[in-house]
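Protocol check, entry for the methods section draft. Step 1: assemble the input record (protein sequence plus ligand SMILES). Step 2: submit for complex structure prediction. Step 3: store the structure tokens unaltered in the notebook. Ligand used here: zinc ion. Step 1 record:
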Amino acid sequence: MHNYYTATRKPTDFYPEYLSGSSVNNSGRERDSQRSKVYRAEKVLRQNKRSPLISKANALALIDSVISTDFWKQLRGPESVNLRVSYKATRYCWARYGTASIVLAASWGLNRSTILHELTHLVVGSPHPAHGKLFCRIFLHFVCGYMSKDSYRTLLNSFNYYGVSY
Ligand SMILES: [Zn+2]
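Step 3, stored output:
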């Protein structure tokens, strides 16, 4: 059962096992078996103008507000996150930990839901699968807090519809 976002919520309220041995790297991860389901399910957030394209300045402001929270610090997320946008015809958006930069390799990803998706990657480490249960819970949490409760409910329903575990 997922809890609504509040500023005082701790990561362990969502996923009690989180703090036991999570570290952000790509070695020793479990198989990322529900990636395509998550991609399909979250598309609903970009429909009906729920998560329209935003300016790069607004995207940076969103990133700053997420990474300045206690929640982010408790997740041991990076202290600074850079944003780069490619306007070439690339298909993918991705996040990279270490140099602490988010790279949105495609301009379609300049919207709140995609930025929140990529930020979530920066706090979900090994051994958790890249798009596993922990990823989905934290992503739901961010959507609730930084989009709307309606978007949160929509994503939750879509996860259920596509059989995504969270
Ligand atoms: Zn992803």
